[in-house]
Amino acid sequence: MELLMSIVIGIIFSVTIYLFMSKNLLRVVAATLLLSHGVHLLLITMSGLQRGAAPILSFDADAYTDPLPQALVLTAIVISFGVTAILLVMSYRTYKVHKTDDLEELRGSADE
Amino acid sequence: MNNIVILPIIIPFIIGAILIILYKRHAVQRVISGITMLILLAFSVFLAIYVYQHGTVVLEVGGWKAPFGIVIVADMLSTLMLLLSTLVGAACMFFAFQTIALDREKQFFYPLFLFLMVGVNGSFLTGDLFNLFVFFEVMLISSYGLIVHGGTGYQLRESFKYVIINVFASALFVVAIAWIYSIVGTMNMAHIAQRVAELDQAGALNIIAIMLFIVFASKGALFPLHFWLPKSYYGPPAAIAALFGGLLTKVGIYAIIRTFTLIFNHNLEFTHKGLLITIAGVTMFIGALGAISQFDFKRLLSYLIISQVSYMVMGLGIFTPLAVAGAIYYIAHHMIVEPALFLFAGVTQKITGTTDLKKMGGLIGTHPWLTWMFFIAAISMAGIPPLSGFFSKFPIILGGFEAQHYVISGVALLVGLLTLITMMKIFSQVFWGKQKHTEEQGKIPVGKLLLPILPLIALTIILGFAAEPMFTYSMGVAEEIMNPTNYIESVLKE
């Protein structure tokens, strides 16, 4: 299971890098969105995937799932949600002000 | 008594939230946020003195025992950084009162400012690696708001790149956290340090060390991840640029110092003597060359940040008590002088209406006080005794020669010379020469603008003349962080 997840995460990361390289503003925003999904999957996978037990530790339980990575992932998801919202607003304003969504045209002049 | 260490995080958070409600009444916002910064400053002075006298203070948040819950740790390094950050924050806040345009001020400027302080103070105080990530994000999201604040075309264009680079770096941070969790199975930094020591930093742990270094280096603007800084710091007004120049890069440097003294200190030949010193040398040289080539006040200062932060990394890389003490001293010096220079750029912009060095000149004739205050800050930055710049560079370079790192020490001396050249370039272009601003502009009073800079200038003089007690203090910090058993024991209570 971990191996399959690792391959999936690898694919997500490569798609992310491809999207980051594109010239379109919205695609770059989509890249950050996908990147955050990739790292969240990585975080939950690296702590070991377990099935069939609740994340509750008690003395008479013979199996339990580590609850910490799930708490971490939940926090990270909330943060990336906020960042994505800010990014969308910023890219919309950039588009409104500069009348373009082509990053090549948003490079700025050479003498700056 | 332990509970007080969380106040530097809680106070700006609550006040910032209240200020969101009061966003229509900017006079009230000014008074409340100004008082808040002064309270924070007074409190961090108290905390620094308390920790110096009584040792490390640890708070287990919510009563969860140390390796399981989040801990807030105030040791000497944290409290020193906290003191400096609130000092810089207060100076920039009072400068912003007079320079930020009213329409900008009304758009949630003060809440964003205070939330940035939450993130910065939290990053300095936390003892949990994931919590460090959370406070980094709090700081970064507020900084996204502040850097684009005002929404001019230039700001939008460059801030987008700034945000993308930081989002990518934060994603790498989570990757590094995932890896470190899979190896040592804990998030508490003291506990991580203990387990990494048991594993002798073998195998994949070196890769994690480099991964964390990449993350913090991109926040701290070290080569080859420095390219975003000059353009994005040029956009916002001087008060915000000064705040960023003083605080944000130093949070990255603090995180490097914390992780590479506490956790990854078992493979010095590879991480410290190899990686850190090489990167520091290249960064300081490239930053200094960039600064020399610029003819814009704010951009020049931004390149100066890049070259100056690498002195701290160099001091850490040499890793002798003398050099690390120098790095600590250098952080104190830099966090005082660099914002002061940015604020001076704001003052000259207010007078002449430009930041282009070629369009300024002869300010000494109309504003002599401004000129001589800038002169003190400039020669302090260049490292002329008896100001703080000299006494902070001296131990680093002396430590370098003593540890037989001749190349990096030579580069550091050369960069000191280049810094002097850039400072003299600003001084001769802006203050000497023919007067290029009009007579009306020459009559603009700047006394009130200089008032928030005055404490910073006074401190660089004090840190220079009172080098002995400050150096003793830095030496104490260096010995404490180079001997992490104290930190680990006070957190894990063994």
Automatic annotation (TrEMBL), chain A:
Main subcellular location: membrane
Keywords: Cell membrane, Membrane, Transmembrane, Transmembrane helix
Transmembrane segment boundaries: 6-21, 28-49, 69-90
InterPro entries the UniProt entry points to: CPA3_antiporter_subunitC (IPR050601), NUOK/Mnh_C1-like (IPR039428)
Compartments, as annotated in UniProt: Cell membrane
Tree of life domain: Bacteria
UniProt entry tagged with the keyword Transmembrane: yes
Keyword Transmembrane helix: yes
Protein's membrane topology: Multi-pass membrane protein
Similarity annotation: Belongs to the CPA3 antiporters (TC 2.A.63) subunit C family.
Official protein name in the record: Na(+)/H(+) antiporter subunit C
Taxonomic source organism: Oceanobacillus neutriphilus
Protein's gene: mrpC
From TrEMBL, chain B:
Domain NADH:quinone oxidoreductase/Mrp antiporter transmembrane: 127-416
Cellular localization per UniProt: Cell membrane; Membrane
Keywords: Antiport, Cell membrane, Membrane, Transmembrane, Transmembrane helix, Transport
Species of provenance: Oceanobacillus neutriphilus
Keyword Magnesium: no
Alphabetized Pfam families for the sequence: Proton_antipo_M
Gene for this chain: mrpD
Principal location: membrane
Protein's name in the database: Na(+)/H(+) antiporter subunit D
Family the entry assigns: Belongs to the CPA3 antiporters (TC 2.A.63) subunit D family.
Matching NCBIfam families: PRK07691.1 (NF005818)
Membrane topology designation: Multi-pass membrane protein
Taxonomy, superkingdom: Bacteria
Listed transmembrane segments: 6-23, 35-52, 72-96, 108-126, 132-151, 163-184, 204-229, 241-263, 275-293, 300-322, 328-348, 369-391, 403-428, 449-467
